[in-house]
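Dear colleague,

Thank you for sharing your sequence with our group. We've completed the structure prediction you requested, and as agreed, I am returning the results in plain text so they can be pasted directly into your records. Please verify that the sequence below matches your submission; if there's any discrepancy, let me know and we will rerun it promptly.
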Amino acid sequence: MSETRLIHLIDDDEAVRHSASFMLRHAGFVVKTYADGVAFLETAQQAALGCILLDVQMPHMDGIEVQKRLNDMGVSLPVIVLTGHGDVEVAVKTMKAGAVDFVEKPYEKQTLVAALTRAFERLDARSHKDVMTEEAKGRIERLTPREKDVLVGLVDGFTNKMIAETLDISPRTVEIHRANLMEKLDAPSLSSVLRIAFAAGVGMDSAV
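Please find the predicted structure tokens below.
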């Protein structure tokens, strides 16, 4: 699906970032680098479609915690983890947390490229609908529980007043929650809100 094979490379070692970027670009990938997991998480929800190459051993926040945060945020880009040689326990943890693959350091170019190629094949195999669904679910994960309640009311066709009565809050409070959820969903209109909600399965016999 993606003509440009973009890699989000997250590693605290500048020398590794430089050498890996050079090698991967020479192999035909486009690479964007991040000095640590915190830097990537700041922009993760707006990150362009691609694969994440994530080092495990990093200061401030290790790769497993970064992966957990990405899951919590609803970011569904394929993750390949770079682990220490022989660190089977860490590799298993990352796979259980949703990583599509892991590569041991020090790695051979062919091994890393093969893992990335498999990850992109997995990404490309998703249908447009699957990607839209995952993106929509990721956006809805940004909402607070009360904002989700208001969203369900909108999906059910309720007015602000009806939602207020159902939730036992004031119409003004509903207006505030509605404005906040529209901003978080990046939805300029009610129709946009409903498209995102239906894509995520809200109101389609699925929990929010």
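Summary note from our side: The domain at 6-126 is CATH 3.40.50.2300 (Rossmann fold).

Kind regards,
the structure core
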